[in-house]
């Protein structure tokens, strides 16, 4: 079976797991939380580079076949899906390579008000008081300020993804890129999912937005962050107050470049 591959990327805590859970209701689709393919892709690229003395025997065509073969073999017959969505924040940094390997493949980048992303992670930290999180390398000290700083720097969970998103958004391969706002997904899921189907060129399927199912409890527990990939049964927007100090919240409130048409020179679709 010739599978079609698409990719879910973007910012953390912005609806990628929820999107995957909804899409998985379609029996023709497979989608899940972030998996190993992003890291494996980068490792293989490195091993096939000039740092390996035997790279002189490897052509670009061989590299292409080997990289594409990783997806074909990882998503073997046991998956039984015609369309596969692989999720990883690194895909926004691989737009050109993905275009070469999967010309028809699309990248759906989930985005959200950055202040609320920081807030969502801080909420998890406070909820899991006695379980240090892998997000902060299981460190038990720090303050909300140091945690926000660590998340937002270029190597942090949020900062890296944010910079990767900008690289994709302002790059040359934006024809295969769509940004899906968390706010749209939770407040109007029917519209959001219809836009995804239109973008990837698939026939729409009926989805039940009041009966979503997804489990990753074992992974979240091992990461010291129970609830990291929890998906509520019903898709709906929930109003609440931020747990962040006002100055921390304000620091990130103007970072949503995707909302300004003047900052979208290539006309990337934003839903």
Describe the structure.
By secondary structure, the protein is an alpha/beta fold. The chain has one domain: P-loop containing nucleotide triphosphate hydrolases (Rossmann fold, 3-Layer(aba) Sandwich), CATH 3.40.50.300. It contains eleven helices and six strands. It has a six-stranded parallel β-sheet with strand order 2-3-1-4-5-6, with helices on both faces. The protein is globular and about 55 Å long. The chain starts with a strand and ends with a strand.
List the helices and strands and how they pair.
Blueprint (H helix, E strand, L loop, with lengths): L3 E7 L5 H8 L5 E3 L5 H11 L12 H15 L8 E5 L7 H7 L5 E5 L2 H14 L16 H9 L4 H13 L7 E5 H6 L1 H12 L16 H6 L23 H6 L17 E2 L1
Parallel strand pairs: 1-3, 1-4, 2-3, 4-5, 5-6
Helix pairs in contact: 2-3
Protein name: Sulfotransferase
Pfam family, one: Sulfotransfer_3
InterPro entries: P-loop_NTPase (IPR027417)
């Amino acid at each position: 079976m010739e599978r079609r591959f698409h990719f879910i990327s973007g910012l953390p805590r912005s609806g990628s797991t929820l999107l995957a859970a909804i899409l998985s209701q379609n029996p023709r689709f497979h989608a899940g939380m972030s998996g190993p393919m992003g890291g494996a892709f980068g490792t293989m690229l490195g091993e096939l580079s000039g740092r390996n003395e035997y790279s002189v025997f490897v052509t670009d065509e061989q590299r292409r076949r080997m990289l594409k073969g990783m997806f074909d073999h990882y998503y073997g017959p046991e998956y039984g899906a015609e369309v596969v969505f692989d999720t990883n924040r690194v895909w926004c940094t691989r737009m050109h390579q993905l275009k070469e390997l999967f010309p028809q493949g699309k990248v759906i980048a989930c985005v959200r008000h950055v202040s609320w992303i920081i807030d969502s992670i801080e909420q998890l930290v406070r909820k899991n008081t006695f379980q240090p999180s892998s997000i902060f390398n299981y460190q038990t000290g720090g303050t909300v300020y140091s945690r926000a700083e660590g998340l937002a720097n270029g190597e942090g969970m949020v900062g890296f993804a944010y910079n990767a998103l900008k690289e994709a958004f302002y790059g040359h391969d934006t024809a295969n890129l769509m940004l899906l706002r968390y706010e749209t997904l939770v407040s109007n899921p029917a519209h959001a999912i219809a836009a995804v189907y239109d973008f990837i060129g698939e026939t729409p399927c009926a989805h039940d937005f009041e009966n979503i199912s997804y489990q990753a409890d074992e992974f979240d527990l091992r990461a010291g962050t129970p609830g990291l990939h929890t998906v509520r049964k019903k898709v709906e927007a929930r109003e609440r107050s931020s747990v962040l100090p006002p100055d921390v919240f304000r620091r990130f409130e103007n970072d949503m470049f995707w909302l300004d048409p003047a900052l979208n020179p290539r006309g990337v679709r934003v839903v």
